[in-house]
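User: For a benchmark we're assembling, each entry needs the component sequences followed by a predicted structure for the full assembly. Here are entry 17's components. Please fill in the structure.
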Amino acid sequence: AQKITQTQPGMFVQEKEAVTLDCTYDTSDPSYGLFWYKQPSSGEMIFLIYQGSYDQQNATEGRYSLNFQKARKSANLVISASQLGDSAMYFCAMREGEYDTDKLIFGTGTRLQVFP
Amino acid sequence: GAGVSQTPSNKVTEKGKYVELRCDPISGHTALYWYRQSLGQGPEFLIYFQGTGAADDSGLPNDRFFAVRPEGSVSTLKIQRTERGDSAVYLCASSLSDRSGRAGETQYFGPGTRLLVL
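Assistant: Structure for entry 17:
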């Protein structure tokens, strides 16, 4: 079974609108972390936001928020007030285990295109 | 401060040749990771160093792949007898981590090395 599933290969959103990128995960470990990264055409992976499995509140970082639904094992990324510069690939990733040095497991990504 | 740097940015080689890819992590970061990203896929874990030692090399696909980090800073990924299937972007990441059990230590990625094996 896939550990991280991103079911949307591509998404379109109009500038200034909000968009939700889906991510579901699969783990039996009670301690885990969920990450979202942005990869523009330049190729570099840019960290956006983190959610820990024990965090009570949804994580927020500026225009990014993570809609964490633990029972459903979903960790959707919400981008508010989309900008043209948000056009990129977005990857959801999971770290399993208690220690923060474990490897990341990535999904296949969602390509977001923001149009004027 | 400076981020993770990787050299070369692009590498073209012929099947059967040996290549070395270099990663210079963020200063002070003890953990260093190598990932491989094939076209249209997310990055896949290769190996992780804590200091000088390889703490987890379970992602290395076969014994043609080897990585070192002799002084606990710069790391080199070495690929012997390259094959066309090795063509991919090789990403390096580092994190500031002391295995204290704190959650949420972020891995910061470099720009990657695009390897093409002809």
